[in-house]
Amino acid sequence: MAESRRVRVGVQVAPALGDFADVRRAALAAEELGADVLFGWDHFFPLGRAEERAGKHFEGWMTLASWAEATSRVELGMLVSCVAYRNPDLLADMARTVDHISGGRVVLGLGAGFRRFEYEAYGYEFGTAGERVAQLAEAARRVRGRLRVLNPPADVPLLLAANGPKALRVVAEHADRWHTFAAGEELTRASRVVDDRCAEVGRDPAEIERSAFVRGDPSEVGPDFLARGVTTFVVLVEGPVFGMAEVRRWLGWRDRVNGGAGG
Fold first, then answer.
1. Is 194 exposed, middle or buried (0-12, 13-18, 19+ CB in 10 A)?
2. Taking a C-beta distance cutoff of 8 angstroms, is the pair 158, 207 a contact?
3. CB neighbours of 82 closer than 8 A, spacing ≥ 6?
4. With contact defined as beta carbons under 8 Å apart, do 5 and 231 qualify?
5. How far apart are CA 38 and CA 31, in angstroms?
6. What residues contact residue 115 under an 8 Å CB cut-off, 6+ apart?
7. Global pTM?
8. Strands 232-237, 209-213: pairing kind
9. 57-76 residue pLDDT tens
10. What is the mean pLDDT of the chain?
């Protein structure tokens, strides 16, 4: 699978710990540097230490819509949108609208959610892990169905972030792209589960693009992920600095692996 796809680099710009102008500048810088995908996030507070939760933060989908207007080339998406926070049909309509704003550059990321304090702070029921995975499966089905009947429609790729065995079956059934939080042998095991579940549902596992968060020296970290099937490498950029040095390193590595400039 890694041999059949070009390496791509995604940049997740956290809309937190800075003014909105800072967030916007970081998004534009990611596109200008040549990132393939620009990701936001669907959180209500800055992540990290508990004392940082009172820091500046902006809502993810509104931020993504603004990026759709401000950028012109880079693919856009949420890594990822928690399916418990919105009616899935509404979420499909939101993604479809941002896709049209951007000229067809949206990838819709979905996840089951995992931060209890965010659910409770905004009045959502956290539920069990099994209930959240069931929500993910239902949301994926409903999103696909709603996208088909909206006018005008949108052909939006579906990215699912998942690691557990039950969630990986949902990936095999519905995802165009799979984002994993695993690395090393854990990643290999999870990838085999996706392959096996694809066989059970009659899908070619090579249809599913695989991505992961990365950090560190690309020449040391990248080849191992690539050998395990990952071809989209996502770098997190956080405030208040929103530094791009690591993004530049990964883009340079991408270009060397792909045998030329650009993704």
1. buried
2. no
3. 42, 111, 112, 113
4. yes
5. 7
6. 43, 47
7. 0.94
8. parallel
9. 999 999 999 999 999 999 99
10. 95
